[in-house]
Protein: Pectate lyase superfamily protein domain-containing protein
Amino acid sequence: MGFPLLMRSISLILLLFLFQSRSYTSSPNIKLPGDSLSLSVTDFGATGDGIHYDSSAIQSAIDACNRHYTSSSSICRVTFPPGTYLTAKLHLRSGVLLDVTENAVLLGGPRIEDYPAESSSDWYVVVANNATDVGITGGGAIDGQGSKFVVRFDEKKNVMVSWNQTGACLGDECRPRLVGFVDCRNVEIWNITLREPAYWCLHIVRCENTSVHDVTILGEFNTPNNDGIDIEDSNNTVITRCHIDTGDDAICPKTYTAPLYNLTATDCWIRTKSSAIKLGSASWFDFKGLVFDNITIFESHRGLGMQIRDGGNVSDITFSNINISTRYYDPSWWGRAEPIYITTCPRDSSSKEGSVSNLLFVNITIDSENGVFLSGSPNGLLSDIKFKNMNLTLRRWSNYSAGLVDYRPGCQGLVNHSATAGIIMEHVKGFSVENVDLKWTDDNLNAWNVPLEFRPSTVNNVSFVGFNSGLLHEIV
Ligand SMILES: *[C@@H]1O[C@H](CO)[C@@H](O)[C@H](O)[C@H]1NC(C)=O
Ligand SMILES: *[C@@H]1O[C@H](CO)[C@@H](O)[C@H](O)[C@H]1NC(C)=O
Ligand SMILES: *[C@@H]1O[C@H](CO)[C@@H](O)[C@H](O)[C@H]1NC(C)=O
Ligand SMILES: *[C@@H]1O[C@H](CO)[C@@H](O)[C@H](O)[C@H]1NC(C)=O
Ligand SMILES: *[C@@H]1O[C@H](CO)[C@@H](O)[C@H](O)[C@H]1NC(C)=O
Ligand SMILES: *[C@@H]1O[C@H](CO)[C@@H](O)[C@H](O)[C@H]1NC(C)=O
Ligand SMILES: *[C@@H]1O[C@H](CO)[C@@H](O)[C@H](O)[C@H]1NC(C)=O
Ligand SMILES: *[C@@H]1O[C@H](CO)[C@@H](O)[C@H](O)[C@H]1NC(C)=O
Ligand SMILES: *[C@@H]1O[C@H](CO)[C@@H](O)[C@H](O)[C@H]1NC(C)=O
Ligand SMILES: *[C@@H]1O[C@H](CO)[C@@H](O)[C@H](O)[C@H]1NC(C)=O
Ligand SMILES: *[C@@H]1O[C@H](CO)[C@@H](O)[C@H](O)[C@H]1NC(C)=O
Ligand SMILES: *[C@@H]1O[C@H](CO)[C@@H](O)[C@H](O)[C@H]1NC(C)=O
Structure:
C-alpha cells in the first residue's frame, strides 16, 4: 500500500539533521618499476596474420619477460608490432607489460578449446593470476570477437552461444571474459582499446592498487553480460579518463568473498543499456570509500545504481559533477530509466539485508524518462543520504511504455505502478535535499504528476531546503 503525496509546486523545510563529515579517498599512484627490456612477439615466432594461432609464441615471450623481471626486478615489455594476433587463453605474469602497439590487435579465439576445460570462471582471453607489477598498454586493441558467439541476432537481447559441453557452467552465460587481473598487486592498464568481449570486458578481482586510465571499452549494445569494468573484492582502485559504450553495466563494483574499499572513478563517458555505475548485485561484503566524479552518462537505461541483495553494507560514497540522461529500453534489460536507483531488498528468502549509509550526490544534472528510486528494506535502511545542487528534467522521448517499478534481481521483480514520481522513497531514514530543482514536461501529466512519493510510510528524518518542483514550460 502506498501513500503518495501529490504536490505540484513545493518548497518546504522538514526536519533538519546533521550530515556527518566525510573523508575523501586518496588515490594510489601506481607506477610500474622502470622497464629495461622489450621483447617482440615476432622474435618468438608470432605471425600476426590473424589466421594462425600465435598463442604459444606470445606465451613464450611473456614467460621470458617474467624471468627477466624475477632476476632484475624491473619490468619487461612484450611488444606486438602492427598485425593481428589470434590467440587462445594467455597467462600474463609478474613484471610483464603487454605492449599492444597502435595498429596491433590481440584477437581472442572463438573456439571452446581456446579456453581450457576448467571452471568457466577462469575463461579469459588474457588473465594475470597472483601477479605483481603487471599491466597492458600500447595504443592498440584487444578484441574478444564477441559477435562470433551470437547465434541469433535479436534487437532485445542477442541469443548467445552457450559452451555448456564441459559441464562447467549452465545456461547462456558460458562465455569467456576478455581481460582479467586476479589476486594482483600494482596493476596499470592504460592507452588501450578493449572491444567486443564475449562476456564481461575488464575484470579486477581481489587486487590491491590498480590504475585504469585512458581506456576505451567498446562492447555490443544488444549483447547481455557485456559489462565494462567489474571490480570485485579489491582495494585502492583508480579509474580515470575512460570511454565505455556497451550493453551491460559499465562500472560495476561487487563483493563476493571480501569487502571492497577505496574505488575512485573520474572523467569518464558512459553509454549502456543497463546501469552506468552499479554497486552489486553480488554484495556479500561491504563497499566503503567510493568516489565518482566528473562523469557523463548518455542515454543509458539506468544512471547511478545500487542493487544490494546479499547482506553487505554500503557507506561513504560520493557522486559529484555528473550529467545523466536515462531513457527506457526493452524491459528485458534491467533498468527503467532511473537516473538514481538504490534498492536493498534481499535477493531471496535466505538472503540477508545490507544497509546503505552516508551517500552524497552533489552537482548532478539529470535529463530522464523516469524519476529517482530510493528503496530500502526493513533491515536494510537507506540512511544519511544527501542530494545537493541537482537539476532534474523529466520528459519522454523513447517509445517504450512506463508504469513498472523494477526490484530485479530477485525481490518482487517488476511491479505495476501507474504513476511516475520524481522521487520514490521507502525505508529511508535521514534524507536531506538541498537546492534541487525538478522540472516536468506537460506532455504526459496524468502519468507522472507526482513529485514525491513516500511508499509506504517508512520514511523518517527528511529535510527539504530549496526544493522546487514545477512544469518545464508554464502552461499559458
Ligand atoms: C582506504 O583509503 C584510506 C584513506 O586514504 C586509507 O586510510 C585506508 O587504509 C584505505 N583502505 C584500504 C583497505 O586500503
Ligand atoms: C603468489 O605469488 C607469490 C610470489 O609472488 C608466491 O609466494 C605464492 O605462493 C603465490 N600464491 C599462489 C596462490 O599461487
Ligand atoms: C598511446 O599509444 C600511442 C601509440 O603507441 C602512443 O603514440 C601514445 O603516446 C600513447 N599515449 C599514452 C598516453 O601513453
Ligand atoms: C549443461 O551440462 C550439464 C552437465 O553436462 C547438463 O546436466 C545440463 O543439462 C546442461 N544444460 C544445458 C542448458 O544444456
Ligand atoms: C581490502 O581491505 C580489507 C580491509 O582491510 C581486507 O579485509 C581485504 O583483504 C583487502 N583486500 C585486498 C584484496 O587486499
Ligand atoms: C599499494 O600502494 C600503497 C601506496 O602507494 C602502498 O603503501 C602499498 O604498499 C601498496 N600495496 C601493495 C600490495 O603493493
Ligand atoms: C571531465 O572529464 C572530461 C573527460 O570526460 C575532461 O575532458 C575534463 O577536463 C574533465 N573536467 C575536469 C574539471 O576535470
Ligand atoms: C554537465 O552539463 C553542464 C551544462 O551543460 C556542463 O557545464 C558540465 O560541464 C557538464 N558536466 C559533465 C561532467 O559533463
Ligand atoms: C552489515 O551491518 C550489519 C549491522 O551492523 C551487521 O550485522 C552485518 O554483519 C554487516 N554485514 C557485513 C557483511 O559485514
Ligand atoms: C541548475 O540550474 C541552474 C539554473 O539554470 C544553474 O544555475 C545550475 O548551475 C544548475 N546546476 C546543475 C548542477 O546543473
Ligand atoms: C559543485 O559545483 C560548484 C559550482 O560549479 C563548485 O564550486 C563546487 O566545487 C562543486 N562541488 C563539488 C563537490 O565538486
Ligand atoms: C516512435 O514511433 C513513431 C511511430 O511509430 C516513429 O515515427 C518514431 O521514429 C519512433 N521514435 C523513436 C524514438 O523510436
